[in-house]
Amino acid sequence: MSFPRYPEYKESGVEWLGEVPAHWVVKRLSHYFEERREKASDAEFAPLSVTKNGVVPRLETAAKTQDGDNRKKVCVGDFVINSRSDRKGSAGLSPTDGTVSLICIVLEPKGVKGGFVHHLLRSAPFQEEFYRYGKGIVADLWSTSFSEMKNIVLALPPNDEQKHIATFLDHEIARIDALVEEQQHLIELLKEKRQAVISHAVTKGLDPDVPMKGSGVEWLGEVPEHWDVVPTGYRYEIQLGRMLNETRSSGENLKPYLRVFDVQWGAINTQGLPLMDFPPSAQKTYRLEPGDLMVNEGGSYVGRSAIWRGELNECYYQKALHRLRPRLHVSDTADFFLYVMEMATLKGVFVANANQTTIDHLTAEQLRRHKFAFPPLAEQKEIARYLEESTTKLERLTEEAQGLITLLQERRSALISAAVTGKIDIRGWEANQQPEQSEMLMVAEERATYG
């Protein structure tokens, strides 16, 4: 949708506001707010968290102090903002009485509409101006106090116009947020679809009429009758990487090597790799060859895999990474087994006792013993090609949905900023009207309806 500008503007005198409507009043923040400094106890008032979604009941993840009395009191209708720059955007109007951390600034509005204040002081331009007034704690972290904040210049319209702008923003933000939620739901459905497509292809194959047999592995279930169900070690040579220590970080044979975070799902980073000493005696053991499958062996990333495609002429790998190399170099293809690893990891096959909360290590011996279903080489290649095509389509749809979310969020931020600083005139807007939609919003609503 599009809105006109106000018919007449004046200079605000401050950079962050620029020109403002001629009838808006330009005054310092201290004219409209007083700081509430009263202390309160968690035993008396409910503890609150100040988040990017506003003021909410205290989150389970929030840091808790031993002294519940050492908090700031908040009353219904107060505006609360986190003073630290690393919490930028954490602010909002409080819907309830309660207490907040001492790092927050509590403002009591005087003669201004809370709904308008909520949007104005949470807008991106104001947030930037607020933290610009701060003083450094460390090089990349600073905090703003009320004594500094009170000098920020605001431009406010009359109260009835404040109320109208707040109503407009509440309506339009809810509409945009609903579209974002639909796209997020679509992304989850696409993720589930990807998992289902991969799981079916690598355990059941592509022929729906093929005779099946029991695999003897509970999580695998039935597999095509002509597939082999054998331990990974029967089909792949598995080698754990070289241990890094001080004596190996220097030497005459320094070579680039992969670390755990260089191996992401389906992709390997080769930029800025560190060097380790790999003498001739170790080079044969740890040198990578095109077609090697790299598997992370531990932590929350256990099982995460990618194929080495020969991106560098010479590269090695450290401990915490397994290298899987097909025996005889012809019996299997890593392209197929990469999808097997993705499926198995998502099913929690490599997690201790199938307990998803347990962080485990997948030793080489454990990986060798894990049983999987292996079709003949030609069928492995056919399945890998099918999955490459299918997952690429799903990834493209996911990227489109994520891109639309980004555009909608940018639109949301821009709309709020324009409305609360007077860059658009929405006085003629009514909630029940059907305004002209932007192409982006029409596309979003169509996707939300039809997927």
Automatic annotation (TrEMBL):
An annotated Gene Ontology molecular function: endonuclease activity
Entry-linked InterPro entries: Restrct_endonuc_typeI_TRD, Restrct_endonuc_typeI_TRD_sf, Type-I_RE_S_subunit
Domain of life: Bacteria
UniProt domain Type I restriction modification DNA specificity: residue ranges: 283-396
Gene3D superfamilies: Bipartite methylase S protein, DNA methylase specificity domains
DNA-binding in keyword set: yes
Alphabetized SUPFAM superfamilies for the sequence: DNA methylase specificity domain
CDD domains listed in its UniProt record: RMtype1_S_Eco933I-TRD2-CR2_like
Hydrolase in keyword set: yes
Pfam families: Methylase_S (PF01420)
Record's keyword terms, sorted: DNA-binding, Endonuclease, Hydrolase, Nuclease, Restriction system
PANTHER family membership: TYPE I RESTRICTION ENZYME ECOKI SPECIFICITY SUBUNIT (PTHR43140:SF1), TYPE-1 RESTRICTION ENZYME ECOKI SPECIFICITY PROTEIN (PTHR43140)
Family: Belongs to the type-I restriction system S methylase family.
Official protein name in the record: Type I restriction endonuclease subunit S
Lineage: Bacteria, Pseudomonadati, Pseudomonadota, Gammaproteobacteria, Oceanospirillales
